[in-house]
């Protein structure tokens, strides 16, 4: 286990309206969308059958290989890939429809609360808020109970928080170290997960994935418990977010919102076959080799363990 190298690789999210979500990620987060594509048009070898894919299909053809045997379900599933660099993907969007009515399923439940991205040093944080307002972004300002970020005059750096069409919170973080260059987003940093029993989840991530505790709110915030976890080098990767009702009972997690999330730098463990969407990168196309396996945590969230080799 190389715990200092573990980092968030990508997130697979369910959405209610795929076209609407694509517009959000293109217009607000300046990501490049590949798709949408209907999974029923893809063969088991990953080739597109009789249908062009809008927005360019090279990346899709490169990463989709050997989708698991879900022929019936695939007929009612559409996906799109979102990339901050144009090679590889950061977010997988999934839209499913009901077989009987053909109506799109609505996202519900408590799975992923949100995630954070680091912006390029070229992004001027002073005018970003106005630009996002002009693009009709929905804002969610810093919650001191969530991550300690508040807007004060004496703070040198501030994050901006926007909501995606499903109400998930996305933190846009300034690059305070100027370590990366690129377009708008340089990296996908961390994911915030709803958990039912924070202490059980914390134990799992510490013992099984060898994360470290960056902060733990304990009982300081009424009705909330927030535990921030980092890799061995101190980079935040996962935040556990537990809620309780006024009478002290835990709010149960679960629902239709998160398919899985992927962590790179993990040793191969768990299962090779995953019951959800199983997308592989093609080493001939993206110049990378992958050997993913899957585990699920104490709340039942599936984690893809990615291994990249030269």
TrEMBL record:
It holds the Pfam family Glyoxalase. Residues 7-175 form the VOC domain. Transmembrane segments: none annotated. SUPFAM superfamilies: Glyoxalase/Bleomycin resistance protein/Dihydroxybiphenyl dioxygenase. It comes from the Archaea. Signal peptide: none annotated. This is VOC domain-containing protein. It comes from Methanospirillum stamsii. The lineage of its organism: Archaea, Methanobacteriati, Methanobacteriota, Stenosarchaea group, Methanomicrobia.
